[in-house]
Design goal:
The chain has about 475 residues and is of the alpha/beta class. It is about 35% helix and about 15% strand. It has helices spanning about 20-30, 55-80, 90-95, 100, 135-145, 155-160, 165-175, 185-190, 195, 245-255, 275, 290-300, 315, 320-330, 355-360, 380-405, 415-420; strands spanning about 5, 40-45, 85-90, 105, 120, 125-130, 180, 205, 235-240, 255-260, 280-285, 305-310, 335-340, 405-410, 440-445, 450, 460, 460-465.
Length: about 475
């Protein structure tokens, strides 16, 4: 039976969270999961996030469906009953703060945020500028006519103060940068994109048309028994920063061979690399060259899953559009994540968790658009999207094993935001509890030892573990083992 427990931390009202069964079950139903699998799921734990939104419940439920999906795949591959799946809110919430709880031991990790990234009061409302990538910072400096590399928060605030928020957002985006005006939920629902994006769901799956793939044509090492759910599953990872890497990090923890591909010129946000590359091998590959495209095609031929966060049209422009993937790689499961959704005028807009929170009304929940932004206590949209996408990959692989058909799964940060805003309210806490030392473990990285959050959720009492320490990008050849 589904065991549901919720206890007070003693620091808040003690009011129990509502809708726990419905929320976990609803997400599993959205994934197309068999309701019978929920009998193997146990959820428990205290509230760890002080927020009017049910961030704790969402973290637990997102991790739960990902872990349940992995357990289902394992059972189908092994031909055995489902193992018990347990998820505690402490583990799930710590995982939603993994990049913040990561701590280097004896070496220096770069700051998570660029010095001028953050919220600024424009002429009429607040605007958030995202400058963690050098190109995005240069776009802000160009728009504000501040010398490259010389901007300070004071100089940015002085320049922003006389500009209307929407004008600043538009100018930065047109310059190739990332910015977001803070809207109230009511304003967003009437916005040109918000009025469309309000219908985005946190997860969707598209089953490929046509007949089943002959079992003999499926990768042999994914058919039979496995020690871990994703053993033998080869994953190509074309994702950046957080949501996509969270997905592939989870797959790696449960046995997948994950190969991350980046352009040779690419510089990831340095602070996230030690947290998100664990369990993966990382390669550079120039997909804009014929040699690079040929290598990528050979990788796709051996891959079971392609996870990407490229903007619409990017793969098509490289010659790897959806039609070619379905024709040339019929057993390939594709998983896609984006920021602002797959429909509407902003479907191709660059975006990040903190920006989407500003756009959709989450950051403005304390008052109007001119009040100081109040973000979530975690980058819950990123992490939630990552675990939901991992759950989708697991379910797609289960369907491939059972029916011989591949499919495409996808999620978006705005779809996840819609789900979070529609959930029952969270528990009011006087202050958020401090995560205990037991929330992290000491593990090696290429730079030295570090405290990191382990993989959340347990299957048969065991949690996922990573075989490869985190390391820099581009350190492995572009090839599966």
């Amino acid at each position: 039976m589904l065991i549901l427990e919720s206890t007070s931390t003693g620091e808040g009202t003690g009011r129990k969270s509502s809708g726990m069964k419905n929320d976990a079950g609803a997400l599993w139903e959205l994934l197309g999961g068999d309701a019978g699998c929920l009998e193997s799921l146990s959820l428990s734990g205290d509230v760890w996030f002080a927020s009017p939104f049910d961030v704790t419940g969402f973290a637990r439920d997102a991790v739960a469906v990902a872990t349940l999906g992995a357990a289902e795949l394992h059972a189908v591959r092994d031909g055995r009953p489902m193992a018990r799946v347990t998820v505690d809110s402490l583990e799930a919430c710590a995982a939603f703060r993994s990049e913040a709880l990561f701590e280097a031991i004896g070496w220096e990790r770069p700051p998570i945020w660029d010095p001028i990234a953050g919220d600024y009061r424009a002429r009429d409302r607040y605007v958030r500028l995202h400058t963690n990538y050098a190109s995005h910072r240069r776009a802000v400096e160009k728009v504000l006519a501040i010398g490259e590399g010389t901007a300070t928060r004071e100089a940015v605030q002085s320049a922003v103060a006389s500009i209307r928020g929407a004008e600043l957002e538009r100018a930065v985006v047109e310059a190739g940068g990332c910015a977001a005006v803070m809207y109230t939920r009511e304003e967003w629902l009437t916005h040109e994109h918000g009025s469309v994006a309000k219908d985005e769901v946190p997860y969707s799956r598209i089953a490929y048309d046509g007949g089943a793939i002959p079992l003999a044509d499926l990768p042999r090492d994914v058919q039979g028994r496995a020690a871990r759910p994703f053993d033998g599953v080869r994953v190509l990872d074309l994702t950046r920063v957080l949501a996509g890497p969270v997905c592939t990090r989870f797959l790696a923890a449960h046995g997948a061979e994950v190969l991350r591909i980046d352009p040779p010129w690419f510089e990831e946000v340095p602070a996230v690399v030690p947290d998100t590359t664990v369990g993966k091998r990382c390669s550079f590959l120039a997909l804009d060259t014929e040699e690079g495209k040929a290598t990528f095609a050979s990788l796709l031929a051996r891959a079971d899953v392609l996870v990407h966060g490229l903007r619409p049209g990017a793969l098509e422009g490289l010659g790897f559009g959806a039609e070619r993937l379905r024709r040339d790689y019929p057993s390939l499961v594709t998983a896609e994540v984006c920021a602002y959704g797959f429909h509407g005028p902003w479907r191709g807009r660059r975006g990040f968790d903190s920006l989407v929170q500003m756009s959709v009304g989450i950051a403005a929940h304390r008052g109007g658009a001119d009040e100081k932004p109040a973000p979530l206590p975690a980058q819950a949209l990123d992490h939630g999207a990552g675990y939901l996408l991992a759950a989708g990959v697991a379910r797609a692989l289960t369907c491939r094993v059972k029916y011989g058909k591949a499919s495409a799964v996808r999620t978006s940060l705005v779809g996840v935001a819609n789900h979070l805003q529609a959930r029952p309210l969270g528990i009011a806490l006087a202050k958020a509890p401090t995560f205990p030392e037991t929330a992290v473990t000491v593990e090696p990285t290429a730079w030295g030892a570090a405290r990191r959050v382990p993989c959340p959720g347990r299957i048969g009492g065991a949690r996922g573990t990573w075989d490869i320490p985190a390391g820099p990008l581009g350190t492995s050849p572009p090839a599966f083992r």
